[in-house]
Design brief:
By secondary structure, the protein is α+β, with helices and mostly antiparallel strands. It has one domain: PK beta-barrel domain-like (M1 Pyruvate Kinase, Domain 3, Beta Barrel), CATH 2.40.33.20. It contains 4 helices and 13 strands. The strands form 3 sheets. Strands 4-1-8-7-11-10-9-13 form an 8-stranded mixed beta sheet. A 3-stranded antiparallel beta sheet has the order 6-5-12, with no helix packed on it. The chain has a two-stranded antiparallel sheet with strand order 2-3. A hairpin with a 2-residue loop joins strand 2 and strand 3.
Length: 194
């Protein structure tokens, strides 16, 4: 597969666990880890993955979360600057809370309603991810959400159109939807209202 071809780099799963954040104990499943095997995809997401707060994560419209690995270098740099990580410390796939670490599909190339056809399933871009306090905790510094808002590096929530399975290395074919609302533009509009 050519380096520029869109594809799934990693499939990541997580369980909801308690975590102390800002002096309170909360349940979170932001800590995802990569798996090597193919994972079944159903209408509500990946088998073996959990969401701690279904009011803001999961459901039909947000069954999966995909994040471009092209942004990892940015996060490595800002985490080192914030002293949340050593300079050059690599980020593990899934650290952003994403189910799919992807390459070749950036936010400004995605529109609400676009479909991502993989060999084993079809997914649709439904909305951008809005960062919360759990994202700041996962990244290790309080300004992470603000930097996501400024950079526009939000990733995409995906709905499942055709269930099946997904695995690392799967090619992604982008099928254009109505092309009325760009993912990054919608993210910036939503973040501007906060």
């Amino acid at each position: 597969m050519p380096a520029s071809a869109a594809h799934v780099v990693s499939v990541n799963l997580g369980r909801a666990v308690p975590m102390d954040i800002d002096g309170r104990r909360v349940l979170t499943a932001i800590g995802k880890h990569a798996v090597a095997e193919a994972v079944p995809v159903a209408a509500l997401g990946l088998r073996g993955d959990e969401q701690a707060d279904p009011s803001v994560h999961g459901g039909i419209a947000k069954a999966l979360y995909a994040y471009p690995v092209e942004h990892y270098a940015f996060w490595q740099t800002v985490r080192a600057q914030a002293r949340a990580a050593a300079p050059g410390e690599p980020l593990a796939h899934g650290v952003m809370g994403e189910n799919l670490s992807i390459a070749g599909c950036l936010e400004d190339q995605l529109w609400i309603g676009d479909r991502l056809r993989l060999p084993g399933c079809v997914l649709a871009v439904s909305e951008p991810r809005i960062p919360c306090f759990k994202f700041n905790a996962a990244m290790g510094f309080a300004q992470a959400g603000k930097l996501m808002a400024q950079s526009g590096y939000c990733g995409a929530y995906l709905a499942v159109i055709e269930p099946g399975q997904v695995r690392a290395g799967d090619a992604i074919e982008l099928i254009a939807g109505p092309r009325e609302v760009n993912l990054r533009e919608l993210f910036r509009a939503r973040m501007g209202r906060r």
